[in-house]
Design brief:
Order of helices and strands: HHHHHHHHHHHHHH
Oligomer: single chain
Number of strands: 0
Number of helices: 14
Largest sheet: none
Structural class: mainly alpha
Helix content: over 70%
Radius of gyration: 23 Å
Distance between the termini: 22 Å
Length: 292
């Protein structure tokens, strides 16, 4: 049977499609073109020289390792932390849990550069209200805290505190959609709080968890503001090319090499899109009750 054309649905989708082409697919297509144009020689030669230059640059692989270590620390802590807090709040739903949701969400209200400056002041012993505690741990100056070996942990800590609140609220909302009958049946079967959480609640919100992983992964790959500001303040911790996004920024706006910067942006796009596709295709992310 021929399907009826849905004008209302098309009108809702059309603005997104326009924005997707103008601000998504269009710039991506231009980046692909620019990545093959060699700006360094000034001749405009077309080829793979930008890719060879980026992969052979001494700054590239350290930036890759920094971002990989950062993701290895931050992403698991973020996912586990969000789920634990959300499950605890859902298990003890009350006015107290409402106050705790607000408390968790508040750090997320201070985001971006403001949160980084706030954390710098909290960790710098000469500025921090926690200076006695820092000195008790043997940390007398900012140079002892903002060392290159500490940066991935510091950036993971900042990203966790600023991002965990909003995801707790989202996961708590997802948990609220679980039928009370299902939870009551689990309780009648003798399931305790932990078993209910692991075998009933988590499977019910698995798509929300997957969505969080995809967005957090894409966000983590684009790490920029934290290392850029910390290096700008300290001039010793990190470098102008500590992360991949910083490296691309340095290539474009310090070296004027937009072709090589386009290679970095395409690399980030491929990594985040590839990881999202793997997660989506290997799960039932888009499956609905009708499809089952």
């Amino acid at each position: 049977m021929r399907r009826r054309f849905d004008r209302t649905g098309t009108l809702f989708v059309l603005p997104y499609v326009v924005l997707l082409f103008v601000f998504g697919l269009g710039p991506a297509a231009y980046s692909i073109y620019q990545s093959f144009v060699d700006d360094r020689t000034g001749t405009g030669d077309v080829g793979l020289s930008n890719y060879q230059f980026v992969l052979g640059d001494f700054r590239f692989w350290p930036a890759v390792s920094h971002v990989a270590i950062y993701l290895g620390i931050w992403l698991p802590v973020m996912v586990v932390g969000v789920l634990v807090f959300a499950l605890l709040l859902h298990e003890r739903a009350s006015r107290f849990s409402g106050a705790m949701r607000l408390l968790f969400f508040l750090p997320g209200a201070v985001t971006g550069s403001a949160s980084i400056l706030l954390w710098y002041c909290m960790l710098e012993p000469s500025l921090s209200p926690f200076a006695p505690a820092l000195k008790a741990m043997g940390l007398e100056s900012g140079n002892e805290i903002f060392q290159n070996t500490h940066l991935t942990v510091i950036f993971a800590l900042i990203a966790f505190t600023t991002g965990v609140g909003q995801w707790i609220v989202i996961m708590y909302g997802a948990l609220q959609n679980i039928s009370a009958d299902v939870l009551e049946a689990a309780a009648l079967d003798g399931a305790g709080a932990i078993r209910t959480a692991l075998q009933i609640k988590l499977p019910q919100i698995s798509k929300y968890v997957l969505y969080m992983v995809i967005l957090c992964l894409a966000n983590g790959l684009q790490l920029f503001v934290e290392p850029q500001l910390i290096y700008g303040i300290t001039h010793t911790a990190g470098s102008p090319w500590w992360s991949l996004n910083q490296f691309g920024y340095a290539l474009a706006f310090q070296n004027g090499d937009f072709g090589s910067a386009a290679v970095i942006s395409l690399l980030l796009l491929v990594l985040s899109t590839g990881a999202a596709l793997v997660l989506i295709l290997r799960t039932d992310f888009f499956q609905t009750e009708v499809d089952r």
